[in-house]
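Example protein was shown:

_____
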Amino acid sequence: MSAQRMTRGYLQVPSREVPSREVSSREVSSRARGLIQVVALFVLALPLAGCGTGALWDKFTAKDDTFVEEPADKIYNEGLYLMNEKKDMKAANKKFEEVDRQHPYSDWARKSLLMSAYASYQGGDYDNCIGAATRYVTLHPGSPDAAYAQYLIAASHYDQIPDISRDQTRTEKAIASLEEVVRKYPTSEYATSAKAKIEGARDQLAGKEMNVGRYYAQKRDYTAAINRYKAVVTQYQTTRHVEEALYRLTEAYMAIGIVGEAQTAAAVLGHNFPDSRWYKDAYNLVKSGGLEPSENQGSWISKTFKKMGLG
């Protein structure tokens, strides 16, 4: 068949029908390569899609867990039950926090915040107690319970006071927080307890100074020791350590030959604490040097005690 006849044959097609045409080997090869590329891309995409198909599938198959809000008083009372009856402070805390989450602007949320601080304190979670109580004082400064929230902050610091051989930063924080209770709420029932705790914390700081002073005295660094004992006499006069501090001052001053200050320390000790065993030791120490306790009114020791109304 001639080329002209072949052409005529292809042109004789019915109307409204798509004309067929002969596909060359080059076109077949091109189409095959395209199909291979599509399949390859699909295969590569499967692992990537698999990373998210689980979560996507879960969204389609998950049950419709509609959130149901519970009454605030119900959750609050469940928290009280867990705290008082079960002694489960962590579980109680979750209930109190749930009240705040579901009913953030209710009076129950205010009560729950305070109870959360209290439950944390009882459970020994002092950091959480401080956080919750601080938030309470910030949000409700005029509340009748603000004094108690402030006291919980102070008590949390106080209960973490370490022994005198360690750093006393926590003790200083405790004193600052306790003084805040006394300053802000002087007529509250918590002010009295705060004052007692302040004295306990101050006694701790005085004990730390005495501990360091004795260390220096053992090393025969009497000047450094005197500075530590002096801090006790000038800053912590109302603590139980002041008697020993006066004796140690007598001892240190005698060791370096400043007998006038040694006599004054012994005399002030005897005047304020005549029945103290430390006075007996100080008296004997001064006597061993052929001296008597004698107060020099110009001494810093004498001035310090007169300033405090104790001399």
Summary: The radius of gyration is 42 Å. The CA atoms of residues 113 and 136 lie 7 Å apart. Confidence is low (pLDDT under 50) at residues 1-29, 38-46, 48-53.
